[in-house]
């Protein structure tokens, strides 16, 4: 027998190459990656279309369809009915059981006028009306309720002005403050809601892209009985683990690249003027590079957790939960809308999330903050990989 | 050459092996025979560096398996229990992968794989992906994988498990040829006939210790039994686990 000199680097390359080929033939990995390039633009398209529609319908009163308002006791308030009619509200016959029809979603709002309404109105006291609605309804469906409510409020204040004038009082006396608002939100800022979704989706796809390989690294190989033969080859165990981690990173970052390409394609070919976000080759590349350290950390985390598990199934259910861990720091994006600063850019996932959002908004993130984010995530990745190596050295890894 | 001196290994409170000693010479086939759970696999796993013994020494070609791990691994070819292969790779890719891990490449590796495919009669499935292979085909791939780097010492953990008669015969022939080529072959089995038919030396393991060892003739002689099966029963003191 002749001894050969086997370098760590060539072993690493051999294992990495094999894992990439092996996994490229795995339908699950390919499905995840396929989804990222097909579903992602569709998802974005859907979101934008919905946002577009909501905003248009909220603002476009001229072309809007009349709000259908069932009224019970319309005969008691003919003037109010006429007023509502002028305000693009169509009075229709009320159903027999108004409460039930609201809670079943047949109507969103129903007006109830009691028989004491005309009496109170004539006497000049406060006339009661009842609006039945479901306050848990949000979004577009709520428009009907708010339209009716504001029309009645306007009617009410006009009547009150008339009554005051009839008594010789200037109506301004009872209106000490007039609020005028001006909205400075640009179309970019309005897309904020949409933008906070992006980090979630990207980070989920990063994790999903490497998940199957991470499982295969330990639990999968052990279950198939191929781990033991592999570990009896003249290769140090940490090289085996690092090579597999490397292959996981390859698939994870490839998925991220596909997602970003999907995003770019979606915005290139979508006729949407409502949301203008900046997707150029430069910004895609910037996001990709800034997220790479997180890819390392995410993959190391998954490989580490997969080392604990005893079977493929177990690994799969654990990793399903682990995938959610990096999205926790992202929660604050939706609630606090933080600005990048030294105090928060060290947090993995969150910092990448902010870089994604700011870059898509077309805003500049200082290079030193990006540096902090990358170094801290790399540090985390190193620590996680070190623990994974330690776990991999144990005899128990063979089960 | 393999030498084992008073190996001990516990898993928690369970003593898997409790002082196993034997040696296996080059150019000979040595069989580890014993009932299930006797400690055969644990002994082999220590030899192929997957486990560390609690005490005792194991030497392969005079190298300590706990000290010189990587060098030991280059000098052994291992067929592990279960013999898992990669289903999404072809048989050839499976064998090549392990060859590359041993530093082989290019034409040398291609020729070696062809040679093994011929030797193990794998030519009709060598280019197919391993998913759906029969147990016999899988074992052949795993065996080719273990032999690709021409190891001096060959360790086989229950190699005939799940093989049909023809595949078992084929395997026996391969083992015989390895012996003729001067290799040191150590294999474990709980099948009496297999060990009797092949081995020059038999090491009977029961309850984590060596109950008896020697050539088939000397074992029969020592136990005063005319056939090996009775000799085996007498050596381990029960009929447990005997096939």
Strand content of chain A: 5-15%
Most extensive protein-chain contact, per-chain counts: A-B, 29 and 38 residues
**Structure class of chain B:** alpha/beta
Indicate the mean pLDDT of chain B.
89
| Largest β sheet strand count, sense and barrel closure of chain A | 4 strands, mixed
Spans of chain B of 5+ residues with little confidence (pLDDT < 50)? Answer: none
Biggest β-sheet: strands ordered side by side in the sheet of chain A? 2-1-3-4
Looking at the chains present, what oligomeric state does this protein adopt? heterodimer
Radius of gyration of chain A: 31 Å
- Uncertain residue ranges of chain A: none
Question: What attributes characterize this protein structure?
Answer:
heterodimer; A: 399 residues; mainly alpha; abc type-2 transporter like fold; 15 helices; elongated; B: 243 residues; alpha/beta; 4-stranded antiparallel beta sheet; globular
Report on this structure.
- The complex is a heterodimer of chains A (399) and B (243).
- By secondary structure, chain A is mainly α.
- Chain A folds into 2 domains: 8-50 and 191-398, no CATH class; 63-180, abc type-2 transporter like fold (3-Layer(aba) Sandwich), CATH 3.40.1710.
- Helices cover 64% and strands 5% of the residues of chain A.
- Chain A is built from 15 helices and 4 strands.
- Chain A has helices spanning 8-24, 27-59, 78-86, 98-103, 117-123, 143-166, 187-190, 192-224, 227-231, 237-269, 281-308, 312-322, 331-336, 350-361, 367-393; strands at residues 67-72, 89-93, 109-113, 129-133.
- In chain A, strands 2-1-3-4 form a 4-stranded mixed sheet.
- In chain A, helix 3 (78-86) links the parallel strand 1 (67-72) and strand 2.
- In chain A, helix 8 packs parallel to helix 11 (281-308).
- The longest helix of chain A has 33 residues, at 27-59.
- Chain A starts with 7 loop residues before the first helix and ends in a 6-residue tail after the last helix.
- In chain A, 35% of the residues are buried.
- The model of chain A has no long low-confidence stretch (mean pLDDT 83).
- With 243 residues, chain B is an alpha/beta fold.
- Chain B has a domain at 84-150.
- Chain B has helices at 40-47, 69-74, 91-101, 106-119, 135-147, 165-180, 192-198, 216-223, 228-236; strands at residues 2-11, 14-24, 29-33, 55-60, 63-64, 76-79, 153-157, 184-189, 201-206, 209-214.
- Chain B has a 6-stranded mixed sheet with strand order 6-7-8-3-9-10, sandwiched between helices. In chain B, strands 2-1-4-5 form a 4-stranded antiparallel sheet.
- In chain B, helix 3 (91-101) packs parallel to helix 5 and helix 8 (216-223) crosses helix 9 (228-236).
- The mean pLDDT of chain B is 89.
- The A-B interface holds A 1, 3-6, 10-11, 14-15, 18, 21-22, 25-26, 221, 224-229, 231-236, 395, 398 and B 45, 48-52, 70-71, 73-76, 78, 80-89, 93, 97-98, 100-104, 129, 142, 145-146, 150-152.
């Amino acid at each position: 027998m002749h001894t050969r000199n086997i370098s760590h680097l060539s072993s690493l390359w051999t294992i990495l190459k094999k894992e990439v080929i092996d996994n490229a033939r795995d339908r699950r990995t390919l499905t995840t990656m396929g989804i990222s390039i097909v579903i992602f633009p569709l998802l974005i398209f859907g979101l934008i279309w919905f946002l577009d529609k909501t905003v248009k319908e909220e603002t476009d009163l001229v072309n809007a369809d009349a709000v259908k308002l069932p009224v019970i006791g319309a005969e008691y308030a003919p003037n109010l009915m006429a007023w509502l009619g002028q305000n693009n509200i169509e009075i229709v016959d009320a159903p027999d059981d108004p409460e039930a029809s609201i809670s079943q979603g047949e109507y969103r709002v129903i007006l109830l006028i009691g028989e004491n309404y005309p009496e109170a109105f004539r006497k000049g006291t406060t006339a009661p009306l009842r609006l039945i609605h479901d306050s848990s309804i949000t979004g577009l469906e709520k428009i009907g309720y708010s339209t009716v409510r504001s029309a009645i409020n306007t009617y009410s204040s006009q009547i009150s002005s008339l009554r005051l004038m009839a008594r010789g009082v200037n109506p301004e006396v009872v209106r000490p403050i007039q609020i005028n608002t001006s909205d400075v939100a640009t179309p970019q800022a309005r897309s904020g809601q949409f933008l906070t979704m992006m980090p979630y989706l990207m980070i989920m796809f990063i994790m999903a892209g490497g998940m199957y390989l991470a499982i295969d690294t330990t639990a999968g190989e052990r279950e198939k009985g191929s781990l033991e033969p592999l570990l009896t080859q003249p290769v140090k165990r940490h090289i085996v683990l690092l090579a597999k981690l490397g292959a996981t990173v390859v698939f994870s970052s490839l998925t991220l690249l596909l997602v970003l390409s999907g995003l770019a394609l979606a915005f290139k070919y979508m006729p949407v003027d409502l949301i203008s976000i900046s997707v150029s080759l430069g910004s895609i590349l910037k996001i990709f590079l800034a997220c790479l350290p997180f890819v390392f950390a995410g993959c190391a985390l998954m490989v580490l957790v997969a080392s604990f598990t005893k079977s493929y199934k177990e690994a799969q259910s654990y990793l399903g939960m682990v995938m959610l861990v990096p999205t926790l720091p992202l929660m604050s994006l939706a609630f606090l809308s933080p600005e990048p600063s030294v105090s928060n850019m060290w947090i993995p996932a969150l910092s990448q999330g902010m870089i994604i959002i700011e870059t898509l908004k077309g805003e500049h993130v200082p290079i030193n903050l990006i540096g902090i984010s990358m170094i801290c995530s790399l540090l985390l990745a190193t620590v996680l990989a070190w623990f994974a190596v330690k776990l991999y050295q144990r005899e128990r890894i063979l089960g | 050459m393999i030498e084992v001196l008073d190996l001990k290994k516990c898993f928690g409170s369970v003593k898997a092996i409790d002082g196993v000693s034997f040696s296996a010479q080059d150019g000979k086939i040595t069989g580890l025979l014993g009932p299930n759970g006797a400690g055969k696999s644990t002994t082999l796993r220590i030899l192929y560096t997957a486990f560390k013994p609690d005490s005792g020494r194991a030497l392969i070609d005079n190298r300590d398996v706990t000290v010189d791990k990587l060098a030991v691994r280059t000098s052994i070819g291992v067929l592990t229990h279960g013999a898992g292969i990669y289903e999404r790779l072809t048989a050839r890719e499976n064998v090549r992968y392990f060859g590359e891990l041993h530093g082989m490449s290019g034409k040398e590796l291609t020729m070696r794989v062809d040679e093994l495919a011929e030797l193990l009669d794998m030519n009709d499935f060598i280019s197919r992906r391993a998913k759906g292979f029969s147990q016999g085909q899988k074992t052949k791939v795993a065996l080719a994988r273990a032999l690709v780097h021409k190891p001096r010492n060959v360790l086989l953990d229950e190699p005939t498990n799940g093989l049909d008669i023809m595949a078992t015969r084929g395997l026996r022939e391969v083992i015989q040829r390895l012996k003729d080529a001067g290799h040191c072959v150590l294999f474990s089995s709980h099948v009496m006939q297999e060990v009797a038919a092949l081995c020059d030396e038999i090491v009977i393991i029961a309850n984590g210790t060596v109950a008896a060892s020697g050539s088939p003739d000397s074992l029969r002689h020592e136990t005063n039994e005319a056939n090996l099966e009775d000799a085996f029963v007498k050596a381990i003191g029960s009929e447990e686990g005997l096939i």
